[in-house]
Amino acid sequence: MKNKFVFNASILIMAGLIVAAVGCKKEDDKTTFTLATLAAGSIDMNGATPPSDIPAEPTITAGFSVDVNSSSVNSSTITLVRDYDQVSIDLSFTVSGKTVTIVPDENLGNGSLYKLSFTSGIKSTDDQSLGALDRSFTTEGAFVPFGQKAYWNFEDNADDQVGTLNPAANGIIDITYVESYNATAGKCASFNGTSSIIEIPNGDQLTNTANFTIAMWVKTNSDGHVDANGNPKGHFVLGLGAFKGFQFEIPGDYGSCKLAASYELSDGTAAGQDLWFNGDGIYNANGGYVGFTFTKDLTGSGGVAALLQDKWAHIVCTYDGATKIGTMYINGEKMKSQDFNLYDNVLANAVGLTWDGDGVEVVNELALGFVQSRAGTLWDNEPWGGYDFPTANHFGGLLDDLAIYHRVLTQQEISLMYASMK
Q1: Which of 110, 138, 166 is the last residue of a domain?
Q2: What is the three-class DSSP state of 221?
């Protein structure tokens, strides 16, 4: 009897061991929850080297080893952060079995570094947690800050590449397209200095904004660029109804440059003011003009002419409606800033740029190559300001990558843009 009991007990123990072994085997066979693939189209984002050619509007597909619990995928468990300013980009998600599709809710811009992060909060349908991980990538092309209102790249045309501000049917006069500041930049628009102009209707859409940035590459040509008396003449690079909207110009002596613009005041009226830079290094702190908070001293390096005469320059001008500060940058470096709060006139009440044209003296057409479009009558009889005078201040030179924003680009964005484009 005793032997029978021992035998039965042995059988039970062996059975238990077999069940335990089978259970362990099933547990060991369970597939670990991992990120198997990550791609934007055909571009692998899961390799050892971060890709640098991701589209600015990517659809990113993440493939996992087992099915994903859709309720665990959200803006807390998958994040996308822009490197240069640490801004988190909103994302949209679609979960289907082992695949999570990730789509940024905004254009990521060109030439920008991003970090895509997956946290341990992501779960599989069998309740495994993902090991936290990061993947970096850079969007394709030269760095272009997000949020362009309009952009002209002059690749054998003068069409707005992000909006609808295209030239009028008869609004392109004596323009050619030639090689730009480098091979990557492609083509640019060439202006002959006597008659070239591009006229773009509805240009007032570019103003009427609290925050403003204009960026462009410009190369002047001083050879033969003279007035009726044979003296060097200025360059009206562009103008939206002259100062009634905004204009950028470089005088014939290359001693300065300026963005003249119309600013809306808090009472609804408007006043004009210049963001003017002459490179003498004199500003408020050392006896300069009221409102000037910084002017770079270029007196020992050839002045403004050394930057702008007959050579490519990247020029950016900004206005911040909240702080009332205007700033000019050339070749990625701050050259001038002014603070309207310090003015002892109505401009201390400026809230942003505005269109102040009357539709007769100036019209709401952006002119590239002159201070205003041909439809306006302002300065028509002035030898320096009338379009029909070949010796007026027509722009002579090259223009490329003209962009306008209704936000204030940061100094870091401007420096990155210049460094990646030059």
Answers
A1: 138
A2: coil
